[in-house]
Amino acid sequence: MFGPLDHVALLLVAAFLAGALNAVAGGGSFLTLPALVFTGVPAVTANATGTVALLPGYAASTWGFREDMAAPPGLSMKLSVALSLLGGAAGAGLLLVTSDATFKKVVPWLLLGATALFAFGPQIRAWAAGQQHGSPSTVKAALGMLAVAFYGGYFNGGLGILCLALFSLLGQTNLNAMNGMKNLVSTLLTAIAVGVYAAGGIVLWPQALLMMVAATAGGYGGARVARKIPAPILRWGIVVTGLVMSVLFFTKV
């Protein structure tokens, strides 16, 4: 069901570390997706299964920011929720019809792009904050939210950075409100995507549940250790991990 014991160990360690990383900085998908692929899981199925494993962490983070949450300018909370669900479902639907051969060719570029987003996240947010002039139109805000949710439904890496950059562009300035909304959007689009993945039969539930338990433990226990690591070292450690995984996938294609 799980494969050799070394495969089980790899999935547990990757999910635990991914949960810890997502709790303090993000970048967990840099570990879960490659771990599943390296244990023989097809790339499309690995992407779906790894997303399922990280869902509880998103939900827990959303609950933690429940008092600070606020919709970004140009969008109501109801519209934000609807667009998150719609975009997430659409992105997940595209993943269902993407062949494994095609996705294997796309994955290295997605990982590399997500790594770049993570590496330059602060600069991207600063640039986005400086681009906002006046109140955004509802149409532009809705299209931005839909695009971010679509990306998240197809591939989760770098989603948090995209969310924060979008909210900055829309003129949101309260960091707690931005983080709360980021977590809510991530939870909603991931939840609907998981439903689509499950309906399409591309989730390996034994691996997903195993990794879910490890990721939840990592989100609580591992984060206690990760928080003691200086932020720049943690950030660049994650960037290096993303680059290494990207190179490995490029060499496998």
Instruction: Give, in order, the helices and strands.
Output: HHHHHHHHHHH
Main β-sheet: number of strands, strand sense, barrel status?
A: none
Number of strands: 0
Number of helices: 11
Give the CA-based shape.
globular
Report on this model:
This protein has 253 residues and is mainly α. Helices cover 79% and strands 0% of the residues. The chain is built from eleven helices and no strands. It has helices at residues 5-24, 29-38, 43-64, 77-96, 100-119, 121-131, 138-154, 159-169, 175-199, 205-226, 231-252. Helix 3 (43-64) runs antiparallel to helix 9 and helix 3 crosses helix 10. It starts with a helix and ends with a helix. This is Probable membrane transporter protein. It holds the Pfam family TauE.
Observed structural traits:
11 helices; transmembrane; single chain; transport; 253 residues; TM_pro_TauE-like
Helix-strand blueprint:
Elements lengths: L4 H20 L4 H10 L4 H22 L12 H20 L3 H20 L1 H11 L6 H17 L4 H11 L5 H25 L5 H22 L4 H22 L1
Helix pairs in contact: 1-2, 1-3, 1-10, 2-3, 3-9, 3-10, 4-7, 4-9, 5-11, 6-8, 7-8, 7-9, 8-9
In short:
The protein is an all-alpha fold and 253 residues long. It has eleven helices and no strands.
